[in-house]
Specification:
The complex is a heterotrimer of chains A (about 300), B (about 290) and C (about 120). Chain A has about 300 residues and is mainly α. Chain A has one domain: Ferritin. In chain A, helix 2 packs antiparallel against helix 3, helix 3 runs antiparallel to helix 6 and helix 5 runs antiparallel to helix 6. The model of chain A has no long low-confidence stretch (mean pLDDT about 95). In chain B, strands 1-2 form a two-stranded antiparallel ribbon. In chain B, strand 1 and strand 2 form a beta hairpin. The radius of gyration of chain B is 18 Å and the shape is globular. Chain C has a domain of about 60 residues: Roll (Ubiquitin-like (UB roll)). In chain C, strands 2-1-3-4 form a 4-stranded antiparallel sheet, covered by helices on one side. Chain C contains 2 helices and 4 strands; from the N terminus they run ββαββα. The chains are: A mainly alpha (about 300), B mainly alpha (about 290), C alpha+beta (about 120). Chains in contact: A-B, A-C, B-C. At the A-C interface, helix 3, helix 5, helix 6, helix 9 and strand 1 of A face strand 2 and helix 2 of C.
Amino acid sequence: MTYEERTAEFKGRIAGGQKIEAGEWLPDDFRQAALKFIEMHANSEVMGAIPEGTWVPRAPTLKRKLSLTAKVQDEVGHGQILYRVAEDLGKSREQMFDDLVNGRTKFHNVFHYPAETWGDVAYIGWLIDGAALVNQKALLDSSYLPYVRAMRRICPEESLHLRHGEELVLELVSGTPAQRELFQDAVNRWWEPTMHFFGPPSKKRDMLLEWGIKTRSNESLRQEFFTTYVPKLWDLGISVPDPALEWNEEKGEWDWSEPNWDEFWKVVGGNGPMTSVRLAQRKTVWDTHAWVREAFAGIPAAA
Amino acid sequence: MNGDPRLALVLSVADDELVIGHRHSEWTGWAPHIEEDLAFSSIAQDEMAHARLLYGLARAAGLTDRDEDALALGREPAEYHNAVLCERPNGDWGYSVARQYLYDTADSVRLEALASSSWRELADVVNVMRLEETYHVDHARTWFSRLAGGPVTGRQRLADGLSKAIGEAVAVFEPLPDESKLISDGVLPRSSEDLLNEWLGAVGKELEAASLDFVLERHGSVGEMVPTGSGEVRGEEVFSPPGVNRRDGVWIHEGGFAGAGGRRGRHSDDFVPMWEEMTMLYRTHPGARW
Amino acid sequence: MAVFDVFGKRTADDDWTLVGGITAPDPEMALVLAKETHFRHKEGVAYAVRRRGEEELHVGPYDAGVLGGVTDHSYRRQEAYTGVGGRQKRVSRQIQERGLRIDRPRPPGHPSRDTEPDG
């Protein structure tokens, strides 16, 4: 069979809803696209650990200190799972880390922003995780089975995080006026990055959709997010800083204001408010701990 | 402070666990090997969960009426009874691993003794804690042997960490306030000095087996210790072990302590910045639920 | 350094099931790590690792009584959060009674979704 023929057959299988197992022959484009997507997902988990991680030392109760540590731990765990899947597609974890800390690869826009207050911790825990879960549930249907298996582990943990985040929000909105304000203020600052998170509405040709690695369009995921979370926010008396956001009965979907997409491209291109600081921190730890990698690679002394 | 010496005992252990758990938790998301990040974070959580258990015990026994958050986050610096070793910043991984090894081997000796405490409820809590502490010691020994038996760079980093930590690790066993009463009541089955020598002897042997015993010969203090409320100032690096000696092939403790004072609420320069960060949000909103 | 496949048993009667993979320098370290990378949420009663390319299965020394923790780690499991949905409804009711609910057009038949997406 020629490469063209094999690729056509492969595409046909995907179009027919078949799934691809680890170790099967993959067209180069598929392998490349899957690797890049999964690598970015993994990068996002480890970079996502940072903003919430800054609040672990500052958590306001012992229980939250524990639960936030566990949550950040899980995010690192998701990174571990995803890097493992990506590594089996042919790129070493060392290379992926090196590329990340040196700014050569990307991660989700939302993790380029600071977590300024505990209100941000609650927002991230409920709504950013909520947005991520909308994406991740869609990936359970991905064409590449090792990725699906990773998502099967990740989604229940993410679901737990979501409940935890919701609990943090409920405490704030039913707490003191200062606490309510903490959360409302966080919503006001985080809404645009959340809108950016789902990506721009239309794309001429989405390779990831064609290969079945992604299964739903950016727009459909964003609409699902609105339906799940906006009414809940309104029920809590929390406003969203988009005057156009409301359900359009006629169209059967939400009207909303498109955010400034230049900001999105700037951020994911590496110029977010915290991008260089965080990458520099990661790079410092990476570089100064080469000795640990060396110790792990070394031949153990005779017993 | 409550006249019952059992409170200082419980708080010494609980505050050690809280503070070192706090420090360990700062590695979550940053550890130099991603699987190790997960393991170390579990250890951090165990320590904080132990603190929680012990704070609960203190309250249930009527030794305090403060709840777990008021104890963990609501006291003034001089009211914390943790050893200075626990409050030091993480530094690099070599220090953190060395400290985890020294602390958890020490804790293991301490908990084994407390498991026979005449204070039944404490013994019960301790026996639950020990089930988790076993893993901490395994983890520490696995890292210890991997680094000690590996390339020179790793050996060096471990040795540096051990050198920095060992003096203050000895002070984990500094005598407790009213220790003689705790011993005569059987609450503390064995004296701190006794436990210290057991630990030091065992650690000395392990270090010798790994050819790292030189860290006991020459170690430096991590920084100045400026205890609050006393005239004591200690500025210079110590190059001979204060109180650690080798006699007849066994490492023992004789005399003083470096980095002591924690059990009496006297902490290093590193405590207050840590305490401020750790307690700020709790203290800023008194009575709030989170 | 090598990749170690990680195996677990959900119940004592199960066969070893592949649950993931980790990177470690040797089997001893792999076991220390695997206990927390793949079993900290009480995912199983037994665990083991096997270096890729080798036959030998290294079984972990900790048993079901200890895997996932012994002291209170409920904060990292579903059991601690089962009341959140109910709480959300109660708080929403209180907010409505205080006249703070925001009344903008929302999807029909949707006073408020009572479950977040399950996963």
